[in-house]
């Protein structure tokens, strides 16, 4: 029988014109549907979104999922599919995956991600593989991959990072001793120029006397 626009007595063992199904056939689930101020019973092969099938000796029923943002659940406290925009993780729904887990977008699930260790201490400040001779350099720290991700497509966090640093030793040892050598070379060049100038001057004087 059908009362109004809904076939509310389909699959019923007993049915009421006002309340719909009161008892369902074997293997079907009793679902109490609410529409505004009215409610009526239905017998369904599977429970609607937000409900799960609870089988009991008395009668199978559709029971509401009690997990926040859950679309379908296996039991009262274990979600199997979350609402759009939420990730499923161990029967719960999250906006973002917990630490140590990565989001698998195609399934909207949280899977074991790439686990990394603690950062090492910052290394020696250097530049061009030298620890002196410059005012500023770079120092680096690293960390190790402790556990690889469950999926190769899941990237690991960065395992090395660098930052600008001020060198403790501005001038390299022995660097000041090279400067006198440069000064000596300049003096030598200057002396050679003076000798060449004196020689050219002597030749000029000799040529001038001959012409007289």
TrEMBL record:
<keyword id="KW-0964">Secreted</keyword>
<dbReference type="InterPro" id="IPR051514">
    <property type="entry name" value="R-spondin"/>
</dbReference>
<protein>
    <recommendedName>
        <fullName>R-spondin-2</fullName>
    </recommendedName>
</protein>
<dbReference type="InterPro" id="IPR000884">
    <property type="entry name" value="TSP1_rpt"/>
</dbReference>
<dbReference type="GO" id="GO:0016055">
    <property type="term" value="P:Wnt signaling pathway"/>
</dbReference>
<keyword id="KW-0325">Glycoprotein</keyword>
<comment type="similarity">
    <text>Belongs to the R-spondin family.</text>
</comment>
<dbReference type="GO" id="GO:0008201">
    <property type="term" value="F:heparin binding"/>
</dbReference>
<dbReference type="Pfam" id="PF15913">
    <property type="entry name" value="Furin-like_2"/>
</dbReference>
<dbReference type="InterPro" id="IPR043601">
    <property type="entry name" value="Rspo_Fu-CRD_dom"/>
</dbReference>
<dbReference type="InterPro" id="IPR044004">
    <property type="entry name" value="TSP1_spondin_dom"/>
</dbReference>
<keyword id="KW-1015">Disulfide bond</keyword>
<dbReference type="GO" id="GO:0005576">
    <property type="term" value="C:extracellular region"/>
</dbReference>
<keyword id="KW-0716">Sensory transduction</keyword>
<dbReference type="InterPro" id="IPR036383">
    <property type="entry name" value="TSP1_rpt_sf"/>
</dbReference>
<feature type="region of interest" description="Disordered">
    <location>
        <begin position="172"/>
        <end position="212"/>
    </location>
</feature>
<dbReference type="Pfam" id="PF19028">
    <property type="entry name" value="TSP1_spondin"/>
</dbReference>
<dbReference type="InterPro" id="IPR006212">
    <property type="entry name" value="Furin_repeat"/>
</dbReference>
<keyword id="KW-0358">Heparin-binding</keyword>
<keyword id="KW-0732">Signal</keyword>
<keyword id="KW-0217">Developmental protein</keyword>
<dbReference type="InterPro" id="IPR009030">
    <property type="entry name" value="Growth_fac_rcpt_cys_sf"/>
</dbReference>
<feature type="domain" description="R-spondin Fu-CRD">
    <location>
        <begin position="9"/>
        <end position="110"/>
    </location>
</feature>
<feature type="domain" description="Spondin-like TSP1">
    <location>
        <begin position="114"/>
        <end position="167"/>
    </location>
</feature>
<keyword id="KW-0879">Wnt signaling pathway</keyword>
<feature type="compositionally biased region" description="Basic residues">
    <location>
        <begin position="172"/>
        <end position="191"/>
    </location>
</feature>
